[in-house]
Write a structure and sequence with these properties.
The protein is an all-alpha fold. It has 21 helices and two strands. 74% of the residues lie in helices and 1% in strands. Strands 1-2 form a two-stranded antiparallel sheet. Strand 1 (283-284) and strand 2 (287-288) form a beta hairpin. Helix 3 (53-65) packs across helix 11 (245-270), helix 7 (125-154) packs across helix 18 and helix 11 (245-270) packs antiparallel against helix 16 (379-413).
Length: 554
């Protein structure tokens, strides 16, 4: 298979999926361009902030993309390119994009509230509380995995103590990104520039940050960066969205688009060959195609994290309901395209069917650098810029998931009636954020490789639960939700199987001669058991309600 052929076929399939299936769904459910959105109805300049659709798309796209659609397909390539490509396209169109669309639609039609709130209204308060706990645990896993990835990407020294200039440049550029984002946020808030002027200013700031980062690299060890990343996450999760998250995501969206455009151009000119087998069998390196393929590809096909972003932050910024389709369904299909590019990247660097060594971001950056190297561009410069883009998106996902985790923790302790002193304390922004980040740090220090399978399982299970809750919402509001049923059932089967395999593996290690470390194995075993129990309880509650025929207005 030629990489260009794979790219063109995938692009055409995803494009027509948006035009046909995406529009079909939104027409079935119905939108009202004249209806007042939650961003206007509950505007508070902290979470509810009416925002330009381009900026909101940038926030959604940068938040959901992260490092997931690059890591997942590259790791899953061990099964061969055919199953990975099929799952990216089928999963992206009929699973992931449908979930993202349903989650944003349901949230906008329910005061911009989270999936947890929707579960409370349409399934019950017990189901909501169970889901909030699940969401909080999942957020901790995302924080742990992505924080370790970012700290590793920023590390200015390798294991031998030698300086790594590319990482140091990426670190300094990302630091300037934060400063530029704050400045841009205040400028947009005060001056309210048009889309064109805003884009020009954002690109100029982006170029300035890259130039400063390349000129003045910042050499700090990974362990120190891990502390700094968590400090940044803490601040980002409690500040108003317009002051940091919105402008930062807007800046990063240009970087992400530039990275994808560079990869597109590189593949067109290089026409790389896919040097891995089409199919390697149902069992590879002791891993089963089902369910491991699905939970490994993760974000490139379907991700429960997207439902948290859609209902946790994006729905509170939407200016008009007509923007729901491109911001949710459209953004997911673009992410699926990024996953296809990642698959082409790993396939092009394989030798004799053997996957290249190095972390997935390194593999991706090396591949794109080799594509563009044939055009006379500096491979070192391209590698640095691609690595910068990947780390920037991972940091952006951290921005969003830390806020989502904090909101879920707060919502669990907020009651409609009286609140006691303990509930009032934990419902505060700062305590909720600290509780979320402490556990995230403890898991982060064991390395993202060790928790990625558990993250993938939890992520896909969250998608299944989001599909359950949105299906109940659609049915109870007399809307057609049949498109969610098959994805919901399949994802429940996949994720329950994956979690059971994780529990079996960790439990066996506990009673074997192998060394059982609590931070590495114990926490993962506890998380896996809790996620499985919570998932079963929420799914049972939701499916029970789905079998009922009562409808309400919305």
């Amino acid at each position: 298979m030629n990489g260009l052929t794979m790219l063109v076929i995938s692009a055409v399939v995803l494009f027509f999926a948006y035009l046909l299936y995406g529009r079909y769904l939104i027409n079935k459910w119905g939108i009202d361009p004249n209806k007042k959105t939650p961003a206007y109805e509950f505007e508070d300049n902290v979470d509810y902030v009416p925002t330009s659709p381009l900026v909101v798309f940038g926030h959604q796209f940068a938040s959901i993309a992260g490092a997931g659609p690059i890591n997942g397909p590259i790791i899953a390539a061990m099964f061969g390119w055919v199953p990975v490509l099929l799952w990216i396209l089928i999963g992206g169109i009929f699973f992931g994009a449908v979930q993202d669309l349903a989650a944003l639609y349901a949230s906008v039609r329910n005061k911009g509230k989270t999936i947890g709130y929707i579960i409370e209204i349409y399934i019950g308060k017990t189901g909501k509380n169970l889901f909030l706990i699940f969401t909080w645990l999942f957020s901790i896993l995302v924080v742990a995995a992505f924080a370790d990835i970012v700290a590793g990407t920023f590390a200015g020294f390798d294991k031998d103590g030698a300086q790594v200039s590319a990482n140091a440049s990426v670190a300094m550029t990302s630091t300037w990104f934060v400063v530029a984002a704050v400045l841009l946020g205040f400028f947009i808030k005060k001056k309210k520039p048009g889309s064109i002027l805003g884009a020009v200013i954002a690109i100029a700031l982006l170029v300035a940050c890259i130039a400063l980062g390349m000129a003045f690299p910042l050499y700090i060890s990974k362990s120190i960066w891990l502390y700094l990343v968590f400090a940044y996450i803490f601040v980002a999760s409690i500040t108003p969205v317009w002051a940091l998250i919105q402008p930062r995501d807007y800046l990063n969206s240009f970087l992400l688009i530039a990275m994808m455009a560079a990869a597109f151009i590189g593949i067109i000119f290089a026409r790389p060959s896919i040097n891995i087998p089409a199919f390697n069998g149902f069992i590879v390196n002791g891993q089963y195609l089902f369910p491991i393929l699905f939970v490994t590809v993760a974000c490139g096909a379907v991700s429960g994290f997207h439902s948290l972003v859609s209902s946790g932050t994006t729905s509170k910024q939407l200016e008009n309901e007509k923007h729901i389709l491109p911001i949710s369904y459209g953004a997911m299909l673009v992410e699926a395209m990024l996953a296809v590019i990642a698959l082409i990247a790993v396939g092009s660097l394989a030798v004799g069917g053997k996957l290249p060594s190095g972390t997935p971001p390194m593999v991706f950056a090396n591949a794109v650098a080799s594509f563009l190297g044939g055009l006379g561009l500096s491979a070192d410069l391209i590698y640095t810029l691609i690595t910068l883009a990947i780390s920037a998106f991972a940091l952006t996902s951290l921005d969003s998931v830390a806020r989502v985790g904090r909101l879920a923790f707060q919502e669990f302790f907020i009651n409609e009636g009286k609140k006691g002193p303990i509930s009032s304390f934990f419902a505060g922004k700062v305590p909720a954020t600290i509780c979320t980040l402490i556990l995230g740090y403890l898991l982060a220090i064991v390395g993202y490789q060790n928790i990625w399978p558990l993250f993938g399982s939890a992520n896909q299970l969250l998608a299944a639960l989001a599909l359950v809750s949105c299906a109940v919402f659609l049915k109870r509001t007399n809307r057609q939700g049949a498109a969610l049923y098959i994805p919901m059932i399949i994802m429940l089967a996949v994720t329950f199987s994956a979690l059971l395999l994780t529990i079996k593996s960790k439990w066996a290690k506990l009673f074997s001669d192998a060394e059982f470390l609590f931070a590495l194995d114990g926490l993962q075993l506890i998380f896996a058991v809790l996620l499985l129990i919570l998932g079963i309880l929420v799914a049972f509650s939701g499916i029970s309600k789905l079998c009922q025929s009562k409808t309400v207005k919305s």
